[in-house]
Amino acid sequence: MSLLALLLAGAAEEPTQKPESPGEPLPGLELFRWQWHEVEAPYLVALWILVASLAKIVFHLSRKVTSLVPESCLLILLGLVLGGIVLAVAKKAEYQLEPGTFFLFLLPPIVLDSGYFMPSRLFFDNLGAILTYAVVGTLWNAFTTGAALWGLQQAGLVAPRVQAGLLDFLLFGSLISAVDPVAVLAVFEEVHVNETLFIIVFGESLLNDAVTVVLYKVCNSFVEMGSANVQATDYLKGVASLFVVSLGGAAVGLVFAFLLALTTRFTKRVRIIEPLLVFLLAYAAYLTAEMASLSAILAVTMCGLGCKKYVEANISHKSRTTVKYTMKTLASCAETVIFMLLGISAVDSSKWAWDSGLVLGTLFFILFFRALGIADTLCFPTLLPVPPLPAAHIPF
Amino acid sequence: MSLLALLLAGAAEEPTQKPESPGEPLPGLELFRWQWHEVEAPYLVALWILVASLAKIVFHLSRKVTSLVPESCLLILLGLVLGGIVLAVAKKAEYQLEPGTFFLFLLPPIVLDSGYFMPSRLFFDNLGAILTYAVVGTLWNAFTTGAALWGLQQAGLVAPRVQAGLLDFLLFGSLISAVDPVAVLAVFEEVHVNETLFIIVFGESLLNDAVTVVLYKVCNSFVEMGSANVQATDYLKGVASLFVVSLGGAAVGLVFAFLLALTTRFTKRVRIIEPLLVFLLAYAAYLTAEMASLSAILAVTMCGLGCKKYVEANISHKSRTTVKYTMKTLASCAETVIFMLLGISAVDSSKWAWDSGLVLGTLFFILFFRALGIADTLCFPTLLPVPPLPAAHIPF
């Protein structure tokens, strides 16, 4: 008796039971039947990943092109072209990068890959500097950029169409000023920067997640409440929530790292599911943190960092290779798809409006205040909780 | 500027824009927020796979248990228990094995794994026997089982509640008499049968897919049309559709195998996406065949069989290892989940009704006519298009 049979029967239940209207001519035996809508969802996903992968192959056919333009830019450009075609054919913008897709499916493999293969010695040696940049640096960037843009508006350099108060600009500042791990990985790995610089900027981009999330939540709540209704306890709550989100996320990650280390001790007779377990439990860590509004990026980073030593010791050599290359492949695939979809999403002009003052002002202030923040920590090395970086390590 | 930021802004668009009703008390800053429904879908999938994987680990802790009871049976039993718990808690049957999930997500990795790692020499050496069993054998089993059950009903041995004519019984016969690859793999790999027996039964289970699909489609159409309306051309169409479905499916598979062999020639500089390409193109073959109502099982089997030599020669050693173990892991995971979900689905008693005559009759006739069919080919070896099997290879 066949599984297939039982399921085929299940699948066919509906058409068999449909009432036959006696007036209509009875359909003969069909030789062909086109059932696009049944396979639509997985087909489209597979197709877009395929397009992105093929584009990657084409870009790398010529070494000249990729040495001149970073791959991520090429992918965004491809996305713009494809988005334009979709827009022309379908008359509306489709296949946009949805926040749900990004946070639930595309971001986790990238962060897991980077957490799992994080050079942990280098990371912990520079933890002080990383935390300084991630917490103090991010707060500094967000507030100064937001405040400066508000100043720009007060000075009348932003189109009067932009109706926003100081709180709105701070909200925008908290969004725009954080360093992002996807872009850092894409660019830094391609240009092969100094490893200390890499670990500091990359570590910051991972650890600032909690700060960004909290800052965004707090500013957003304040905007919703209106500045008049914000009370002193709300500021305290904001500070408390920074600790809850970051330490909570890290704790979730460590709990799952422990579970993973424990489970892989018992897989000697079922080696085949070892790679699966690693991905499943790390993903569960991410989703659990996301569900509780904790920092999911911190959770999966800590899970990867925490479990690696034990997992690698427990699982077989073949499982180790599979975990390593599958993780790299998934992360690379997610990154490729993100940049392509970013390009496609940028085509939808109904969402965007150009404002020279705001755009150029933002660009300038981000760079300016970031440089100022870094110069500060270098001029006052006593502010750093660890021995300061040798200046030679920071080339800008 | 951060990707994260742009997307966070997108995600928050809705709550920010919601109109505030002035009467309601304004919410203060929230420290915690539980967002289960946002992560529900991927969380549940991850959780069920995790449960199945952990169960597998537990079963294999004791070698005694798995040597007595096949793993697939243990998983079905586990499913029954879990299904019972779900039924008791939720008061309704949930997490059933849906045909869509089975055909789009669980079956493809299993068939790809078996097609890709098919011992091709052994397969082609026994192709005649395999085809005889897959086409003639399956037709024989379906018609005899269906007709015999109809005879049983005419003899009054089936509860009168079962209202069905000869065509309905033939439809049932076409469903129930085909050998199924998932079960063959699960059982035969565990008991380590003779390799010729394995390739014949397993090959049959893959190649009979086209026959089963066509037989089911034809019988189903005839039942819908009513036996009085079936015309001579419909029988011809049925025969033609057997060729369309099988050869069409195989052709789709070979086209994708060619594409895969071609694409992997150009991946020397982007080794990281090689494993992804293999899975994507094989899956695209499956979905394309499924979409055109061709035999998707044949398509992915032929794709795996056809591309392997070229792909293995083109991709790097590390990619080969990754492809191999990822394929095995995915297939094992899919198989595990299928058997567990089968158990869970069996709990829903509203779908089932016991009829001793029908159940025992079906069991008996399937075994009886299958044995008769095999005895036939052994007694009349000239019927086989290839030299007959040495009798020693067939232990029953």
What does this entry look like structurally?
Chains A, B: It holds the Pfam family Na_H_Exchanger. Chains A, B: This is Sodium/hydrogen exchanger. Chains A, B: The chain crosses the membrane at residues 41-61, 73-90, 130-152, 164-188, 197-218, 238-262, 329-347, 353-372. The structure is a homodimer of 396-residue chains. Chain A has 15 helices and no strands. Chain A is mostly helical. In chain A, helix 2 (36-59) packs antiparallel against helix 4. The longest helix of chain A is centred in the middle third of the chain and has 32 residues, at 232-263. The first copy, chain A, is globular, with a radius of gyration of 25 Å. At the A-B interface, helix 1, helix 2, helix 5, helix 10 and helix 11 of A face helix 1, helix 2, helix 5, helix 10 and helix 11 of B.
